[in-house]
Design a protein that fits this description.
The complex is a heterodimer. Chain A is globular and about 50 Å long. Chain A has helices at about 5-10, 15-40, 40-60, 70-90, 105-110, 120-135, 140-150, 155-165, 165-185. By secondary structure, chain A is mainly alpha-helical. Chain B is globular, with a radius of gyration of 24 Å. Chain B is about 35% helix and about 25% strand. Chain B has two domains: about 5-55, no CATH class; about 120-215, Immunoglobulin-like. Chain B has helices spanning about 5-20, 25-35, 35-50, 65-75, 85-90, 95-110, and strands at about 120-125, 130-135, 140-145, 155-160, 165-170, 175-180, 190-195, 210-215, 215. Chain B contains six helices and nine strands, in the order ααααααβββββββββ. Chain B is of the alpha+beta class. The chains are: A mainly alpha, B alpha+beta. The interface between A and B is large, with 77 and 55 residues.
Chain lengths: ~190, ~220
């Protein structure tokens, strides 16, 4: 990938402080949205945003521009950190139950990232379309559960409670769903 | 993906990426991803597979936290500049300027001639592995604090110069590592997880666990 963010990440790996200044305004709004959604608390999200930027700096050398977009890697680091925080919370606080979003189709409406070049934009669009097509192959409730986990950081236990099924049933459902997703997405 | 063990590992990687695991299992997978290159690669594959879902996260106005972030990443030297009180006592003006120029000219003479000691601290995710490096002008020493690389794997140390190309400095086995090297401030040390015996391509092939810049101490 040759998107602007992946170029900045490779400069971060060279300890380029100017690149960090340039990266911040390009990724902060997306990270703020992601972290607020997953953590459900703006103050917590702002605190997490600082931690994520520090991890981007420290871990930029492990980003491989041949594998995935820069923004995809940035989001992966942020999601991982948000999950780290969610799993460290006392179980009682956990994650509040939130109504699940609409189905996967809405992702196509929101793609207009100016930091991504036209060529990568079309690659990303193609990848998203394949994600949507693959989610469409899943039973509707399972697709919603996988998306709930991805977007809200919900665990098996939280999903089982929300969908009102036993924990083991939820686990079996989602493992099967993940196997079919992998087959579909690797096709 | 015919091996049932591989299948389990791959599903665990997916469950870890999605966040389906409860606190204990998630933490165990998190630690494994930091130190097991094969598992880390499965995790990365799943992150890329599901990348399309990230467009579902909205953008929100973010405060400018850059000053705090930079202050944490690049702490200013704590020592106050020498003679600061004296400058104030002398007052502003031409005298200060003249003295400053004089000092600038003289400073190479005044400076101690010995090579500066360079240090770096390489810290892996969650401090699972911490390497303290020091370079005295000829000899690089590393003190490792953390687990061994595991069966069939080795830690490999790299130096990355201005050209951005990593050059291997050798394998890190045991707690202490020493080697002769020509290093300078600003170069970056990195440690990666490699198959036993080290990378055979001359470049890191496994996950890079930690990096740090060599600085004058």
């Amino acid at each position: 990938m040759t998107d602007e963010i992946s170029i900045l990440l490779t400069r971060l790996a060279q300890q380029d402080r100017v690149a960090l200044k340039m990266l911040y305004p390009k990724v902060a709004p997306k990270l703020m949205g992601l972290l607020t959604r997953m953590l459900g608390d703006r103050a917590d999200a702002e605190d997490a945003l600082q931690e994520v930027m520090i991890r981007l700096w420290q871990r930029s050398a492990s980003y491989d521009p041949q594998k995935g977009t820069g923004m995809g890697w940035v989001c992966a680091v942020a999601r991982n950190h948000a999950l780290d925080r969610l799993r460290a919370r006392p179980a009682a606080r956990g994650h509040r139950l939130v109504t699940t979003d609409g189905d996967a189709r809405d992702v196509l409406d929101s793609v207009a990232d100016p930091a991504i070049g036209a060529e990568d934009q079309s690659i990303l669009r193609a990848r998203m379309q394949s994600v949507i097509a693959c989610f469409d192959e899943l039973p509707e409730d399972r697709a919603r559960a996988v998306k709930g986990a991805y977007l809200m950081g919900q665990s098996y236990q939280e999903l089982a409670a929300q969908f009102d099924v036993p924990l083991n049933t939820m686990r079996t459902w989602l493992r099967r769903a993940l196997i079919s997703l992998r087959e579909c997405l690797d096709r | 993906m015919t091996n049932p063990h591989d299948q389990d590992d791959d599903l665990l990687a997916a469950e870890y990426v999605l966040g389906l695991l409860d606190a204990d299992d998630w933490r165990a997978a998190h630690e494994r991803a930091a130190l097991d290159g094969g598992f880390a690669a499965r995790v990365r594959d799943w992150e890329i597979r599901l990348d399309g879902l990230n467009t579902d996260f909205p953008e929100m106005p973010a405060p400018d936290l850059l000053p705090q972030i930079e202050a944490r990443l690049f702490p200013a030297p704590v020592q106050p500049p020498r003679g600061a009180g004296l400058w104030r006592w002398l007052g502003a003006g031409s005298m200060v300027a003249a003295l400053a120029i004089g000092l600038a000219v003289l400073s190479p003479v005044l400076r101690a001639p010995q090579a500066p000691l360079l240090t770096a601290e390489l810290v892996a995710e969650d401090r699972a592995l911490v390497l303290a490096a020091s370079f005295d002008g000829t000899q690089l020493r590393l003190q490792a604090d953390g687990p061994e690389a595991g069966d069939g794997q080795d830690y490999e140390l790299w130096v990355i110069g201005a050209d951005g190309v990593p050059a291997s400095l050798g394998l890190l086995r045991g707690g202490l590592f020493e080697t002769q090297a020509a290093l300078e401030a600003g170069q970056v040390l990195a440690v990666s997880l490699e198959p036993a015996g080290g990378s055979d391509t001359g470049l890191p092939t496994g996950p890079v666990l930690a990096t740090a810049e060599l600085r004058e101490s």
